[in-house]
Amino acid sequence: MRPGGTLLALVASLMLLLLLRLLWCPADTPARSRLSVEESREDTRGTSAAMRTIWSPVTSVPLTRNSTYLEEKSPQLTEKCKNLQSDLKSLFNKTRRYSEDDYIQIITNIQRCPWRRQAEEYENFRAKLASCCDAVQSFVVSQNNTPLGTNISYEVENKRQIPIRENLFHMFPVTQPFVNYPYNQCAVVGNGGILNKSLCGAEIDKADFVFRCNLPPITGNASKDVGSKTNLVTVNPSIITLKYKNLKEKKAKFLEDISNYGDAFLLLPAFSYRANTGISFKVYETLKESKVRQKVLFFHPMYLRHLATFWRTKGVTAYRLSSGLMIASVAVELCENVKLYGFWPFSKTVEETPVSHHYYDNKLPKRGFHQMPKEYIQMLQLHMKGILKVQFSKCEMP
Ligand SMILES: *[C@@H]1O[C@H](CO)[C@@H](O)[C@H](O)[C@H]1NC(C)=O
Ligand SMILES: *[C@@H]1O[C@H](CO)[C@@H](O)[C@H](O)[C@H]1NC(C)=O
Ligand SMILES: *[C@@H]1O[C@H](CO)[C@@H](O)[C@H](O)[C@H]1NC(C)=O
Ligand SMILES: *[C@@H]1O[C@H](CO)[C@@H](O)[C@H](O)[C@H]1NC(C)=O
Ligand SMILES: *[C@@H]1O[C@H](CO)[C@@H](O)[C@H](O)[C@H]1NC(C)=O
User: Which residue positions does the secretion signal occupy (predicted)?
Assistant: First the structure.
């Protein structure tokens, strides 16, 4: 190990611990918390007030969320929604510290606008993703895209390489295993507390492909809210270390827990940091020797680097993307219709009810609101453009 490597690893694991508590769908990303400190000093005094007056007076529009209201498409509403979109565009450029209430107000307004899929916007955006990143061919490491005898460069520690010899090569699927691509309807399920009592489970289970993050619970009472169907679930190496003790004494518990995911793929960032590799291979070996139905896949580090570059050009300057945004980006390429559930980085709902950080624990988010994660703003923009749909509240009763 390089000098300083140990210190780096220590700092990294401390931050990881912190982040586990912080994020709704975190990636294993030591420097993730930079998100909250990268605040622009730009002086935008007054814009917050302007924002509030977009709908002034705010109370004049009744807070109805039934579809009848949305289908009315009154000319005033359509006009307001158009304005909202352009106002948001310019506001998103100014990253002064807005309060959580400011953002929730924006989302309340967004929610009132009818959502319609915009095929042209979608095709456009998908084409851009395809040309930068090409999830369809290269989102996971396969024998096709990673020939024997080549080297893989790590995503983050990109000066470091790992040679592809027989022993590794055999862990990879021959080609991308998404045989039914393109999928019609996809659900990307984050772990936000907003899903608690959402009754979104039935809707999620109807999707053709369901993505989930970091081995979340999907059994018992949770399934009403989050469904149980799972086609792909990400695994942060830290959960293997912390919750399953590196698959030593907790191996049986691990196998029991993953048996709930049917024949889903378990997706690991094996080649993002060198520290991820051994533990990811351990997961692979454990599944293989236990002859379970789930299969292990590895994120391709090149794909993730290209994706990070793509989002950086859109202003997402975080050190590393969250797995939520990675998966949402993959979904846009793999699916015709994408809906996001459980993405809500706030401490309360639009109705001011407190929400826990995850749907499966009672931890409240940390007090104080630093900066709207830039990633979430991107998701809101995709929603506003009709490229994907974000579910902000409870799912409607059938
Ligand atoms: C939808 O909301 C409107 C306005 O509040 C109300 O008049 C109508 O009855 C509601 N429709 C349904 C189906 O709930
Ligand atoms: C943000 O600002 C940059 C330059 O300041 C401009 O080129 C870009 O169009 C702006 N984006 C939006 C969405 O307004
Ligand atoms: C892979 O890396 C090794 C060691 O750094 C180097 O000798 C070899 O030429 C590389 N192979 C390829 C195909 O780049
Ligand atoms: C499920 O919910 C019921 C009532 O809402 C409760 O009594 C029960 O303990 C819950 N079960 C679990 C496993 O949380
Ligand atoms: C879910 O919401 C209920 C109240 O509606 C609350 O009692 C419960 O603690 C919440 N569960 C979690 C995990 O936050």
Answer: 1-27
50 domain-assigned: no
Ligand in closest contact with the CA of 223: 4
Residue 240 vs residues 22, 83, 85, 237, 254: alpha-carbon distances, Å: 18, 47, 42, 5, 8
What's the CA gap between 6 and 183, in Å, rounded? Answer: 44
Cα 352 to ligand 4 centroid, rounded to whole Å: 24
Closest ligand 2 atom, CA of 92?
A: 13
Percentages helix, strand, coil for the chain (3-state, rounded to 5) are 45, 10, 45
Give a yes or no: residue 243 inside a domain.
yes
Q: Please check whether residue 274 is in contact with residue 301, taking contact to mean a CB–CB distance below 8 angstroms.
A: no
Q: Whole-prediction pTM value?
A: 0.80
Enclosing domain of residue 212: 9-39+117-390
Q: What is the CATH number of the domain that holds 268?
A: 3.90.1480.20
Share of the chain above pLDDT 70, in %: 75
Q: How many A from CA of 362 to the centre of ligand 5?
A: 7
Specify the number of domains making up the chain. 1
